[in-house]
């Protein structure tokens, strides 16, 4: 435990000062370091028998010279040794003092790399913050919801929330984590919740000849039929699915991705629409091999002669079916939308979501 207090100056041989955030509890022994002006210049005054709780205000006395307190520092059960002098006026730590502490937490799958610790949740659980440390509790967070299932249109990606500098954590707190599952064929994905934030599940892919593409974190792609719209994405979490426009085949749309909208079709309407792309975070590559999350599912082929398989978007989106291959599910723990299907292929499920917390630990 490390406390730093600013205190008053006095010309008397004792100085009275008030600690506004003194530690609580019984019989906690601390050491003191006080920068003091004496006749021969800067020296350090030590007392290794200081206990909390005690009366407040506190009195510090010395028999030599006047007290000019610059900093008051305490280190639990760590008496400062005599002779550790040479403290310069204005410094806030003595030579040999304990280092500043880093963020400390537990829960989920633990991974350490490059001076950072990662807590990844691929299933629901609890994230426990033990200590936010001396650096302000700054952490990086990623929440991804479950992707929507494809139908004839591709499924929309699960909503994605990212912060490179999340500072709302406090010490000695627990946080419930709920990981959204991917939707089955023709069904929306489920929400992911953590830290009072909710990433919305991806919208389902639309059926043919119906205005049925689902809204969500990202919207599902429309089924075939002139002018049917893709589902709407949620602002700040994703984008809309592709709309079916263009002749001669009115191609099925790809699901929306976290970064870009799903396509309404390629090659003048001859080919189904690819899914929209998600975002890439290279620091998270260890959790799915790519570091990409939130890709939309590809739409199904536009007619029986099509051998083109519309790709899913970057970030786990599943491909749509063609006359040669079937649809593919969104990748697990990316929130990718499922690919659309046709001619006996009902479409594929969306990928499940994930929560990752990253913070510096060395």
Description:
This protein is mostly beta strands and 362 residues long. The chain folds into 2 domains: 2-75, no CATH class; 100-362, no CATH class. Helix content is 0%, strand content 26%. The chain is built from no helices and 18 strands. The strands form 6 sheets. Strands 8-9-18-11-12 form a 5-stranded antiparallel β-sheet, with no helix packed on it. The protein has a 4-stranded antiparallel β-sheet with strand order 1-6-3-4, with no helix packed on it. A 3-stranded antiparallel β-sheet has the order 7-10-13, with no helix packed on it. Strand 3 (28-38) and strand 4 (41-52) form a beta hairpin. Mean pLDDT is 77; it is low at 1-97.
Radius of gyration: 30 Å
Order of helices and strands: EEEEEEEEEEEEEEEEEE
Total count of domains: 2
Basic shape:
elongated
Order the strands across the largest sheet as they lie in space.
8-9-18-11-12
The oligomeric state of the chains shown is single chain
Number of DSSP helical runs? 0
Question: Main sheet?
Answer: 5 strands, antiparallel
**Low-pLDDT stretches:** 1-97
Strand percentage lies at 25-35%
Helix content: under 10%
How many individual β-strands?
18
How would you state the average pLDDT, rounded?
A: 77
By secondary-structure content and strand pairing, the structural class works out as mainly beta
Distance linking N and C termini: 17 Å
């Amino acid at each position: 435990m490390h406390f730093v207090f600013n205190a008053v100056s006095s010309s008397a041989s004792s100085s009275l000062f008030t600690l506004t955030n003194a530690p609580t509890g019984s019989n906690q022994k601390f050491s003191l370091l006080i920068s003091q002006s004496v006749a021969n210049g800067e020296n350090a005054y030590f007392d290794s028998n200081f206990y909390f709780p005690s009366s407040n205000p506190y009195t510090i006395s010395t028999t030599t010279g006047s007290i000019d307190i610059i900093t008051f520092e305490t280190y639990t059960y760590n008496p400062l040794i005599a002779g550790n002098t040479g403290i310069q006026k204005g410094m806030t730590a003595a030579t040999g003092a304990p280092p500043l502490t880093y963020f400390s937490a537990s829960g989920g799958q633990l991974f350490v790399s490059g001076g950072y610790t990662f807590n990844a949740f691929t299933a629901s659980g609890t994230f426990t913050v033990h200590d936010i440390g001396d650096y302000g509790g700054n952490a990086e967070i990623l929440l991804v919801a479950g992707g929507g299932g494809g139908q004839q249109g591709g499924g929309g990606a699960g909503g994605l929330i990212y912060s490179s500098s999340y500072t709302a954590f406090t010490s000695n707190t627990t946080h419930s984590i709920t990981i959204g599952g991917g939707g089955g064929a023709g069904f929306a994905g489920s929400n992911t919740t953590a830290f009072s934030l909710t990433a919305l599940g991806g919208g389902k892919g639309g059926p043919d000849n119906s205005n049925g593409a689902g809204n969500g974190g990202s919207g599902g792609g429309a089924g075939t039929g002139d002018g049917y719209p893709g589902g709407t994405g949620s602002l700040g979490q994703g984008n809309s699915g592709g709309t079916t426009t263009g002749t001669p085949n009115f191609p099925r749309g790809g699901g929306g991705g976290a970064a870009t909208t799903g396509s309404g079709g390629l090659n003048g309407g001859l080919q189904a629409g690819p899914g929209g792309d998600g975002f890439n975070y290279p620091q998270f590559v260890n959790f799915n091999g790519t570091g990409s999350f939130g890709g939309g599912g590809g739409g199904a082929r536009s007619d029986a002669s099509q051998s083109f398989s519309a790709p899913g978007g970057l970030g786990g989106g599943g491909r749509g079916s063609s006359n040669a291959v079937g649809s593919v599910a969104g990748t697990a723990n990316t929130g990718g939308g499922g690919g659309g299907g046709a001619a006996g292929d009902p479409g594929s499920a969306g990928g499940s979501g994930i929560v990752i917390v990253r913070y510096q630990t060395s």
